[in-house]
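User: Hey, quick favor. My workstation is busy. Could you predict this chain's structure for me?
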Amino acid sequence: MAHDTNAMLVGMGRREAAAVSGRSWRMRGNALLAAVAAGFTAAQLLLVRPDMGLGWDETVYISQVGDQAPAAFFSAPRARGVSLLVAPIASWSSSTGLLRVYLAVLSGIALFLALRAWRGVFPIRVVAGGGALFGSLWVTLFYGPQAMPNLWVALGALLAVGCYLRARAADRPDRRALWGVAVGAALMAVMRPTDAVWVALPLLAVAAVLRHWRLGLVTTAGLVAGAVPWVVEAYTSYGGLRERLAQASRVQGDLGWHLAVDDQMRSLVGRTLCRPCTGSMPEPVLLVWWVLLPLLAALGLVVAVRAGRTAPSLIPLACATTAAVPYLFLIGYAAPRFLLPAYALLAIPVADGLLHLVTTPGGRWRPVAASVLAVAVAGHLAVQFAVLNHITDRTVRDHGVWARDVEAMRALGVRPPCLLTGHEAIPIAYYAGCSSGAIHGNNANMTRAEILSTARREPVAHLSVLGGTPPAYARGWQLHRLDGMDVRIAPTPREGGPE
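Assistant: No problem, here it is.
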C-alpha cells in the first residue's frame, strides 16, 4: 500500500512538474513575442518623428471624427475603420504627436496579439523571427504610427490566418481560435473590405474543399460584420453597392489588367505614392530584399513540406499571393503600403526558411552559415533604416511647407470658416481649419456656383502649383505667391468683384 501511495505521489509530482514546465515555456514564448512587439513600438517612436505632421489621406480620415476642420470628401474606395481607430484621440485632441504615440503603442499591442495566434503552429522562435522581419521593414515602421488602413489589414490578416490554422488543426472546436478568425477578418474588412476579400479567398476555398464548414462560416461572418458599415454607406451615400464599387474602380484608375510589378519596385526607394510611376529603377541594393522575398518564401514551403507540415506554410503563402495580386496586376500605379498584408503573411514562412539555413548545416559549416546570415540581415536592416530616414525627413519637410503656407494664408485673411479648392486643397484645408472643395476629379464634391456662392459669405482661395493655370472662376482673384504655391483669394463681399 505504501508503495502504491508513493507511486501515486511521484506520478502527481511529474504531472505538476510538467504543468509548471509548460506554463514556464508559454511565459518565455510570450515574453519573446512581447519583446518583438515592444521593439516595434520603440523603433516607431525613435525613427518616425512624432512631429511629422499629417499626410493627405490621414487628414481625410481624421477630419471625419475631429473638430479641427470640417469633414473632407470621403471617396468611394475608403472605409471608416481608420476613423474609428483614431477617434479615441482625434475626437478631443488635435495633437499630432499624441496621435502618433497612441498609434505606435496600439500597433505594437496588435502585433503581439497577432503573433501570439501563431503559437503552436510554428516554433516560437520562428514566429518571433517573422514578427521581427515584418516589423523591421521601413514601410511597416513608417506606417505604424500613421492613420492609414493598410498595416491594420496586415495585422488582421496575421491574426485571422494564424487562428484559422490553429482551429483547423485542433482535435475539437477551439472557440478562442474561431473568435480570432472572426475578429481578424472583421478588422481587415472594416479597414478595407476589398482587400479583406482578397486575403480571405484561400481560407474560404480550403474550408469549402475540405468541408470545414464551421471555419468557412466564421470567416465569412467576420468579413460580413466588418463590411456592413461600408455596404450600408454604399446605399446611403453612393447610390448602391454596385455604383460604389464602380466609383471605387474609377478613382483607382479603372481596375483591370495593369502590370504594376515594376511600379512597386520603383516605389521601394521611398515613394509613398507612385502615380504616375515614372523614372529609373532604384539601386540594386534597395531591391535585393524584395527580389529575394518570393525565393525565401519558396524555401520556407520546401522546409515545411519536408517537415510534414505543409498546410501551415502553404495557406499563408496562398493568402499573401491573393493579397498581392490586385496591387501587382490589376491597378495602374503603386504604393509600398499596398503590399503590407502580403509582407506580413510571408514573414513567418520566410523566417522558417532562414532558420533552416542556419540550423541545418552541421559541424564547422553551421557557424559559417550563421555568420553569413547575420551579415545579410545587418545589411538588410541598414538599407531599411536608410530608406526610412530619407522618407521621414522628406515627409517632415513637405508637411512643413503646408504649415507655412497656412500661416501665410491666415495673414492674408483666409481663416475659418473658409473654403480651399485646387492643388492639395484637402490636406492644406485641414491644416487651415477650412473646408475643401473640387468641381472635377476623384474628389469632386461641389459645383462652380456653390464655390462662388460660398465666396460671398466667407474667405475662399484657389491653390495651384507655381505658374499654374487657374480655373475660369478664379482668374480674376488676387494672386499671392507662397512657398511653392500660387494662391488666388476671392474678393470679399465688401470688395465686390465679378463672379
